[in-house]
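Supplementary Methods. Inverse-folding protocol.

Structures were first reduced to a C-alpha coordinate string of length 244. This string, shown here, constituted the complete conditioning input.
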Protein backbone atom coordinates (compact mmCIF):
# COMPACT_ATOMS: atom_id res chain seq x y z
CA UNK A 1 0.00 0.00 0.00
CA UNK A 2 2.95 2.31 0.74
CA UNK A 3 6.30 1.83 -0.89
CA UNK A 4 9.12 4.16 0.11
CA UNK A 5 12.04 3.80 -2.29
CA UNK A 6 15.45 5.43 -1.81
CA UNK A 7 13.95 8.62 -0.44
CA UNK A 8 16.35 11.42 0.44
CA UNK A 9 15.37 14.91 1.44
CA UNK A 10 17.20 18.11 2.27
CA UNK A 11 16.18 21.28 4.02
CA UNK A 12 18.66 23.60 2.33
CA UNK A 13 22.07 22.08 3.07
CA UNK A 14 20.77 19.88 5.85
CA UNK A 15 19.98 16.30 4.85
CA UNK A 16 16.96 15.28 6.89
CA UNK A 17 16.30 11.90 5.20
CA UNK A 18 18.97 9.62 3.77
CA UNK A 19 18.08 6.82 1.38
CA UNK A 20 14.99 5.63 3.25
CA UNK A 21 13.42 2.37 2.11
CA UNK A 22 10.43 0.50 3.46
CA UNK A 23 7.06 -0.93 2.56
CA UNK A 24 3.73 -1.09 4.30
CA UNK A 25 1.43 -3.80 3.00
CA UNK A 26 -2.34 -3.57 2.95
CA UNK A 27 -3.66 -4.14 6.46
CA UNK A 28 -0.24 -3.84 8.03
CA UNK A 29 0.45 -1.68 11.08
CA UNK A 30 3.94 -0.19 11.20
CA UNK A 31 5.19 1.78 14.19
CA UNK A 32 7.93 4.34 13.59
CA UNK A 33 10.04 5.36 16.58
CA UNK A 34 13.33 7.07 17.20
CA UNK A 35 14.86 10.08 18.91
CA UNK A 36 13.54 13.59 18.50
CA UNK A 37 14.84 15.17 15.30
CA UNK A 38 15.53 11.83 13.58
CA UNK A 39 13.14 12.61 10.71
CA UNK A 40 10.02 10.65 11.70
CA UNK A 41 7.58 13.50 11.08
CA UNK A 42 9.34 14.45 7.88
CA UNK A 43 9.15 10.89 6.54
CA UNK A 44 5.46 10.55 7.35
CA UNK A 45 4.70 13.95 5.80
CA UNK A 46 6.47 12.83 2.62
CA UNK A 47 4.06 9.87 2.43
CA UNK A 48 1.19 12.34 2.44
CA UNK A 49 2.99 14.63 -0.03
CA UNK A 50 2.89 17.40 2.56
CA UNK A 51 6.67 17.71 2.22
CA UNK A 52 8.52 17.38 -1.08
CA UNK A 53 11.59 15.15 -1.34
CA UNK A 54 14.45 15.47 -3.78
CA UNK A 55 15.41 11.85 -4.41
CA UNK A 56 13.61 8.53 -4.69
CA UNK A 57 9.88 7.87 -4.83
CA UNK A 58 6.95 6.99 -2.64
CA UNK A 59 4.12 5.01 -4.15
CA UNK A 60 0.79 5.02 -2.29
CA UNK A 61 -1.78 2.51 -3.51
CA UNK A 62 -0.18 2.52 -6.94
CA UNK A 63 0.18 6.29 -7.24
CA UNK A 64 3.71 7.71 -7.48
CA UNK A 65 4.27 10.92 -5.54
CA UNK A 66 7.40 11.78 -7.50
CA UNK A 67 5.54 11.58 -10.80
CA UNK A 68 4.87 15.21 -11.75
CA UNK A 69 1.60 14.14 -13.40
CA UNK A 70 0.18 12.89 -10.11
CA UNK A 71 -2.73 14.87 -8.72
CA UNK A 72 -1.34 15.42 -5.21
CA UNK A 73 -4.50 16.92 -3.64
CA UNK A 74 -6.40 13.86 -4.81
CA UNK A 75 -3.76 11.55 -3.35
CA UNK A 76 -3.81 13.45 -0.05
CA UNK A 77 -7.57 13.08 0.17
CA UNK A 78 -7.08 9.31 0.27
CA UNK A 79 -4.41 9.35 2.97
CA UNK A 80 -5.71 10.03 6.48
CA UNK A 81 -3.39 12.04 8.68
CA UNK A 82 -3.62 12.58 12.42
CA UNK A 83 -1.25 15.07 14.02
CA UNK A 84 0.01 15.59 17.53
CA UNK A 85 -2.01 18.79 17.89
CA UNK A 86 -5.36 17.61 16.45
CA UNK A 87 -5.61 20.54 14.00
CA UNK A 88 -9.40 20.71 14.12
CA UNK A 89 -11.02 23.90 12.82
CA UNK A 90 -11.65 25.84 16.05
CA UNK A 91 -14.44 28.01 14.66
CA UNK A 92 -16.47 25.06 13.37
CA UNK A 93 -18.62 22.63 15.34
CA UNK A 94 -17.59 19.00 15.64
CA UNK A 95 -20.23 18.10 13.04
CA UNK A 96 -18.91 20.74 10.66
CA UNK A 97 -15.35 19.54 11.22
CA UNK A 98 -16.46 16.05 10.25
CA UNK A 99 -18.33 17.07 7.10
CA UNK A 100 -16.50 20.00 5.51
CA UNK A 101 -13.86 18.04 3.60
CA UNK A 102 -16.37 15.37 2.62
CA UNK A 103 -18.54 17.96 0.88
CA UNK A 104 -15.80 20.27 -0.40
CA UNK A 105 -13.15 17.75 -1.43
CA UNK A 106 -15.13 14.59 -2.18
CA UNK A 107 -18.29 16.34 -3.39
CA UNK A 108 -20.60 14.38 -1.13
CA UNK A 109 -24.07 15.75 -0.43
CA UNK A 110 -24.63 17.41 2.94
CA UNK A 111 -26.91 14.56 4.01
CA UNK A 112 -24.42 11.87 3.05
CA UNK A 113 -21.54 13.67 4.73
CA UNK A 114 -23.59 14.25 7.86
CA UNK A 115 -24.65 10.60 8.09
CA UNK A 116 -21.08 9.43 7.64
CA UNK A 117 -19.74 11.96 10.15
CA UNK A 118 -22.30 11.00 12.78
CA UNK A 119 -21.66 7.29 12.33
CA UNK A 120 -17.94 7.87 12.90
CA UNK A 121 -18.59 10.17 15.85
CA UNK A 122 -20.61 7.37 17.41
CA UNK A 123 -17.79 4.96 16.73
CA UNK A 124 -15.36 7.12 18.71
CA UNK A 125 -17.95 7.55 21.45
CA UNK A 126 -18.63 11.27 21.07
CA UNK A 127 -22.16 11.54 19.70
CA UNK A 128 -23.22 13.79 22.58
CA UNK A 129 -20.65 16.40 21.54
CA UNK A 130 -21.73 16.86 17.91
CA UNK A 131 -22.78 20.49 18.26
CA UNK A 132 -19.91 21.69 20.41
CA UNK A 133 -16.77 23.45 19.26
CA UNK A 134 -13.35 21.79 19.60
CA UNK A 135 -12.35 24.13 22.43
CA UNK A 136 -15.15 22.69 24.56
CA UNK A 137 -13.69 19.16 24.33
CA UNK A 138 -10.76 17.61 26.17
CA UNK A 139 -7.55 16.86 24.28
CA UNK A 140 -8.38 13.16 24.14
CA UNK A 141 -11.84 13.88 22.79
CA UNK A 142 -10.46 16.29 20.19
CA UNK A 143 -7.99 13.70 19.03
CA UNK A 144 -10.78 11.12 18.67
CA UNK A 145 -12.69 13.66 16.55
CA UNK A 146 -9.54 14.18 14.46
CA UNK A 147 -9.36 10.42 13.85
CA UNK A 148 -13.06 10.32 12.94
CA UNK A 149 -12.55 13.25 10.58
CA UNK A 150 -9.71 11.46 8.81
CA UNK A 151 -11.76 8.25 8.56
CA UNK A 152 -14.70 10.16 7.04
CA UNK A 153 -12.65 10.50 3.86
CA UNK A 154 -12.48 6.69 3.45
CA UNK A 155 -8.67 6.71 3.45
CA UNK A 156 -6.70 3.80 2.05
CA UNK A 157 -4.08 4.35 4.76
CA UNK A 158 -3.93 6.23 8.04
CA UNK A 159 -0.81 8.09 9.14
CA UNK A 160 -0.37 9.11 12.76
CA UNK A 161 2.30 11.50 14.00
CA UNK A 162 2.66 11.15 17.78
CA UNK A 163 -1.13 11.29 18.27
CA UNK A 164 -0.95 10.89 22.04
CA UNK A 165 2.17 12.81 22.97
CA UNK A 166 0.39 16.12 23.58
CA UNK A 167 -2.27 14.52 25.80
CA UNK A 168 -2.63 14.40 29.53
CA UNK A 169 -1.77 10.86 30.68
CA UNK A 170 -5.33 9.89 31.54
CA UNK A 171 -6.42 10.62 27.97
CA UNK A 172 -3.83 8.54 26.19
CA UNK A 173 -5.69 5.26 26.42
CA UNK A 174 -8.98 6.49 24.99
CA UNK A 175 -7.09 7.50 21.83
CA UNK A 176 -4.98 4.33 21.72
CA UNK A 177 -8.17 2.26 22.11
CA UNK A 178 -9.58 3.83 18.93
CA UNK A 179 -6.29 3.13 17.13
CA UNK A 180 -6.20 -0.48 18.34
CA UNK A 181 -9.76 -0.96 17.11
CA UNK A 182 -8.80 0.47 13.72
CA UNK A 183 -5.82 -1.85 13.51
CA UNK A 184 -7.99 -4.86 14.32
CA UNK A 185 -10.40 -3.82 11.59
CA UNK A 186 -7.58 -4.15 9.08
CA UNK A 187 -6.72 -0.50 8.44
CA UNK A 188 -3.28 0.05 6.94
CA UNK A 189 -1.47 2.26 9.44
CA UNK A 190 1.87 3.98 9.77
CA UNK A 191 2.18 5.40 13.28
CA UNK A 192 4.93 7.54 14.69
CA UNK A 193 4.61 6.83 18.39
CA UNK A 194 6.63 5.97 21.46
CA UNK A 195 3.72 4.07 22.97
CA UNK A 196 5.50 0.74 23.02
CA UNK A 197 2.50 -0.97 24.62
CA UNK A 198 0.55 -0.07 21.49
CA UNK A 199 3.40 -1.31 19.33
CA UNK A 200 3.54 -4.62 21.17
CA UNK A 201 -0.21 -5.05 20.91
CA UNK A 202 -0.93 -4.27 17.26
CA UNK A 203 2.21 -3.50 15.27
CA UNK A 204 3.33 -5.92 12.61
CA UNK A 205 6.65 -4.16 12.19
CA UNK A 206 8.67 -1.53 14.02
CA UNK A 207 10.90 0.98 12.24
CA UNK A 208 13.60 2.75 14.19
CA UNK A 209 15.01 5.99 12.76
CA UNK A 210 18.14 7.84 13.71
CA UNK A 211 19.60 10.97 12.08
CA UNK A 212 17.50 10.61 8.94
CA UNK A 213 18.24 6.92 8.41
CA UNK A 214 15.94 3.94 8.80
CA UNK A 215 18.26 2.00 11.08
CA UNK A 216 15.92 -0.85 11.96
CA UNK A 217 12.93 -2.24 10.12
CA UNK A 218 11.86 -5.54 11.56
CA UNK A 219 9.00 -7.69 12.71
CA UNK A 220 7.65 -6.68 16.09
CA UNK A 221 8.60 -10.02 17.62
CA UNK A 222 12.21 -9.52 16.60
CA UNK A 223 12.27 -5.87 17.63
CA UNK A 224 11.13 -6.51 21.17
CA UNK A 225 12.15 -10.12 21.51
CA UNK A 226 15.81 -10.01 20.68
CA UNK A 227 17.09 -6.67 21.89
CA UNK A 228 20.70 -7.78 21.61
CA UNK A 229 20.31 -8.26 17.88
CA UNK A 230 19.30 -4.61 17.45
CA UNK A 231 21.69 -1.85 16.45
CA UNK A 232 23.56 -0.16 19.26
CA UNK A 233 21.65 3.06 18.67
CA UNK A 234 18.28 1.30 18.87
CA UNK A 235 19.35 -0.50 22.03
CA UNK A 236 20.32 2.79 23.67
CA UNK A 237 17.03 4.36 22.65
CA UNK A 238 14.94 1.43 23.87
CA UNK A 239 16.84 1.32 27.13
CA UNK A 240 15.92 4.94 27.68
CA UNK A 241 12.24 4.75 26.83
CA UNK A 242 11.61 1.36 28.45
CA UNK A 243 13.52 2.08 31.64
CA UNK A 244 10.58 3.15 33.79
N1 LIG B 1 10.85 23.04 7.87
C1 LIG B 1 12.08 22.70 8.30
N2 LIG B 1 13.17 23.40 7.92
C2 LIG B 1 14.40 23.05 8.34
N3 LIG B 1 14.67 22.00 9.14
C3 LIG B 1 13.62 21.27 9.55
C4 LIG B 1 12.27 21.57 9.17
N4 LIG B 1 11.45 20.66 9.74
C5 LIG B 1 12.24 19.83 10.44
N5 LIG B 1 13.54 20.20 10.33
C6 LIG B 1 14.67 19.49 10.93
O1 LIG B 1 14.69 18.18 10.42
C7 LIG B 1 15.04 17.25 11.42
C8 LIG B 1 13.98 16.19 11.55
O2 LIG B 1 12.78 16.77 11.99
P1 LIG B 1 11.49 15.89 12.24
O3 LIG B 1 11.14 15.14 11.01
O4 LIG B 1 10.45 16.81 12.79
O5 LIG B 1 11.99 14.87 13.36
P2 LIG B 1 11.18 14.00 14.40
O6 LIG B 1 9.74 13.98 13.98
O7 LIG B 1 11.83 12.65 14.35
O8 LIG B 1 11.39 14.64 15.73
C9 LIG B 1 15.26 18.06 12.71
O9 LIG B 1 16.62 18.30 12.83
C10 LIG B 1 14.52 19.34 12.43
O10 LIG B 1 15.11 20.40 13.13
MG1 LIG C 1 8.06 14.57 14.97
Amino acid sequence: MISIKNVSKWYGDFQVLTDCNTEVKKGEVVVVCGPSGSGKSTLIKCVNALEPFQKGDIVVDGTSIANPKTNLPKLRSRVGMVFQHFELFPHLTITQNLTIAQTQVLGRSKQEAHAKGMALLERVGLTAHANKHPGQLSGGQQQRVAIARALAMDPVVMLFDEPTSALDPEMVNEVLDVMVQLAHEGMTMMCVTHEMGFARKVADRVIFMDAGHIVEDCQKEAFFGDINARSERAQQFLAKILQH
